[in-house]
């Protein structure tokens, strides 16, 4: 707290030097007044701390997404713009109702300046009204473009770091088209993630003259998808796209392989962690996904804009959690930290942390982010684009023997 330190080392010392010339009673009154002034200053200085809340899926079906994000918090900046930063992490248990309650708590009780989260699309969508009402900027770690599009009065306060489902669906359609795919089936989660990803896959499939021949849904907690897979197989698709995130996304490809499916299988980028590889095992060999550059950072061309920072993040995260522990979901949290690291010093010019002026200025500074390189690409946001990434932020990856293998275009 440099201002308080300056007050103590400057004004207090000056008062002591002057005391030699003052009567004792007058000195006592001056000392009392000075102590009262310092006592009043202490709470003000303490409240100047920047508070960042995180709503993460640390338990429940999406825990494999939230845990790497939580573990990344230890790598986020401890001080920004001369202010210390406090991170408050809450578990939404992969549940939309809990995500809303956590968000309300962070805003009304903890008085945070910004929120990072949630880990999944349904929860992030549920949080939008709360952060808009609380005029608190939010940086989502989930995939759906609907989280930030269109930038209306409520999404005015919402940003995100992961690639959108539209970006990833277009990559799948491009890859499938070059591999001769004419018919595609879809199986996705029965929630906002599954629905929005299906809409994008269907749109880009049509653009590449491929027919959607089946569309099935399952719940994150379902023990079996045999019925859905049998319906898909009856249509004889050239490729199947799985629109799901985390370890529950392993169930469709495992069932497809068990039933003898030999066609192409694509995943959503929500499977970009080693827990998914572990659960899916050999059944995911030869399957594909559009992914964050972090998954294959060492294999990227030297001129890829994200390579240096991705490798740096991997080294720091694995030093903390062990070799092979890195995932895309942690990197999205790191990128949220990078956004705040650039935006907070700008916002401090408009007001102190904990004030509406600071939160509004922080939102404005996030929206004005331009030319920021992070672990996934280069961020250029605008009033109509609260992601700011371009196609360089996605890479096509094949799963081979429980490894991510970069597929050059």
UniProtKB/TrEMBL annotation:
- Organism field: Paraburkholderia panacisoli
Q: Which InterPro entries match?
A: BCAA_transport (IPR051010), Leu-bd (IPR028081), Peripla_BP_I (IPR028082)
Q: Where is the composition biased (Polar residues)?
A: 8-20
Q: Which SUPFAM superfamilies match?
A: Periplasmic binding protein-like I
- List, alphabetically, the PANTHER family matched: BLR7848 PROTEIN (PTHR30483:SF38), LEUCINE-SPECIFIC-BINDING PROTEIN (PTHR30483)
* Keywords (A to Z) from UniProt: Signal
Where is the region Disordered? 1-20
Q: Name one Pfam family in it.
A: Peripla_BP_6
* Protein's name according to its UniProt entry: ABC transporter substrate-binding protein
CDD domains linked:
PBP1_ABC_RPA1789-like (cd06333)
Against Gene3D superfamilies, the record matches this protein to:
3.40.50.2300
Location of the Leucine-binding protein domain: 49-394
The entry sums up its family as follows: Belongs to the leucine-binding protein family.
């Amino acid at each position: 707290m440099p201002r308080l330190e300056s007050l103590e080392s400057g004004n207090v010392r000056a008062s002591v030097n002057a005391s030699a010339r003052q009567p004792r009673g007058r000195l006592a009154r001056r000392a009392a007044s000075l102590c009262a002034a310092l006592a009043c200053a202490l709470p003000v200085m303490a409240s100047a701390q920047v508070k960042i809340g995180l709503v993460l899926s640390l338990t429940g079906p999406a825990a494999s997404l939230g845990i790497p994000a939580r573990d990344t918090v230890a790598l986020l900046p401890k001080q920004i713009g001369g202010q210390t930063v406090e991170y408050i992490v809450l578990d939404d248990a992969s549940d939309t109702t809990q995500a809303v309650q956590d968000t309300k708590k962070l805003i009304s009780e903890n008085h945070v300046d910004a929120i990072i989260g949630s880990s999944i699309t349904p929860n992030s969508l549920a949080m939008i009204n709360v952060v808009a009402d609380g005029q608190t900027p939010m940086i989502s770690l989930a995939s759906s473009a609907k989280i930030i599009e269109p930038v209306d009065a409520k999404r005015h306060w919402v940003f995100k770091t992961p690639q959108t489902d539209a970006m990833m669906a277009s990559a799948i359609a491009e890859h499938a088209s070059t591999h001769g795919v004419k018919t595609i089936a879809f199986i996705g989660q029965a929630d906002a993630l599954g629905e929005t990803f299906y809409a994008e896959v269907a749109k880009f499939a049509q653009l590449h003259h491929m027919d959607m021949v089946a569309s099935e849904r399952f719940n994150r907690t379902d023990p079996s998808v045999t019925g859905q897979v049998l319906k898909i197989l009856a249509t004889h698709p050239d490729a199947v796209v799985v629109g799901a995130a985390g370890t529950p996304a392993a169930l469709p490809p495992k069932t497809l392989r068990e039933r003898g499916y030999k066609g192409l299988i694509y995943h959503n980028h929500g499977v970009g962690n080693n827990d998914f590889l572990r659960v899916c095992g050999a059944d995911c060999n030869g399957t594909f996904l559009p992914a964050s550059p972090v998954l294959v950072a060492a294999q990227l061309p030297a001129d890829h804009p994200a390579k240096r920072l991705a490798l740096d993040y991997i080294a720091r995260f694995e030093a903390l959690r062990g070799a092979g522990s890195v995932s895309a979901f942690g990197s999205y949290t790191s990128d949220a930290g990078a956004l705040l690291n650039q935006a907070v010093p700008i916002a401090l010019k408009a007001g102190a942390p904990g004030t509406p002026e600071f939160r509004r200025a922080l939102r404005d500074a996030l929206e004005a982010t331009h030319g920021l390189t992070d672990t996934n690409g280069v961020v250029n946001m605008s009033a109509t684009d609260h992601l700011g990434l371009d196609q360089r932020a996605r890479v096509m990856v094949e799963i081979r023997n429980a490894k991510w293998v970069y597929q050059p275009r």
